Predict the structure.
Amino acid sequence: MRNNAKAVRRKGSSAVTIDAVAAHAGVSAMTVSRVINGHAGVRETNRERVMRSVVELGYRPNLAASALAAAQHTCIALIYTNPSSSYLRELLVGALRGATAAAAQLVIATWDGLGKEARREAARQLCNSVAGVILPPPLCESKMIVSEFVNAGIPVVSIASSRFSDRVSCVRIDDRQASHDMVSHLIAHGHSRIGYITGDPNQTASADRWQGYRDALADAGIGYDDALVQPGYFTYRSGLAAAEALLDLPLAPSAIFASNDDMASAVVSVAHRRGLAVPGDLSVVGFDDTTASTMVWPELTTLHQPVAEMADTAIDILLREIRRSVPADRVTVSHRLAHQLIPRASVARPRGA
């Protein structure tokens, strides 16, 4: 695949085609088409390879050329930095599906490794070429980045942020209530000593999920114990460190709630390494319902955050704003989607309960 990538790059400014994406990913053009249109029936490994190739090659789907001409050739950007691979896959599936259905071009850009000034300059350059921007976390939490676009008159829709203002629309779930639901689920199974791994402190969703954890304990008459809370950053590695700290406590928790699936998967790994049975000795739950939740044993009880639907909805909101006949009439909205608790095999009653 490396040779294919080099061949594509040698074409210079030529537009990347669906055939080039297929060759880079090692799949058929039909498979690429099915993936970017959000169809089921594609093997997970192939879906991930296609999404990776789309990003690496900078492919801009344009599957409805005639409709695009009628829709004023709208070009929008989705910019991301450093999400988990499973979260990114869901994000791209939804965004590509929404852009294709709405006859819009989608630019996918990664700002990984860019410093503050480099991001500011990248934002200014995009302002000259796109009509709107989708910002998932953590970029949607950056006042500097948001201001660059808004001050240039570029509509912005953020994903999974509760920092709503009259300048930026947002699509999210109720993270606080979702977290409350998960802790209540553990309490209903007899757990009262519940460890918690926080998310990235720079994201509003992290604070909301932590507050939901505290709310559920209080509602059940269980005292909050700061020793049972460990910092995490939504990464697998931070989940490993947090799990070690929680399980090293003199009185270890009987259950651990990690605020995303990557960190919950890390907790399962640490438990297995210590010879602990999940869920016999330790119940483990996560958040997001990404592919990571079903790639560990046992599969994780988790909270389904409809990431693909959130991205699809963000595209719809953004295009409605862009295509208003009178720009001065543009309005921002806060759209909340439903979450769902997904019970699987990683939760049981604590021993002796």
Notes: The radius of gyration is 22 Å. The longest strand covers residues 75-80. The mean pLDDT is 87.
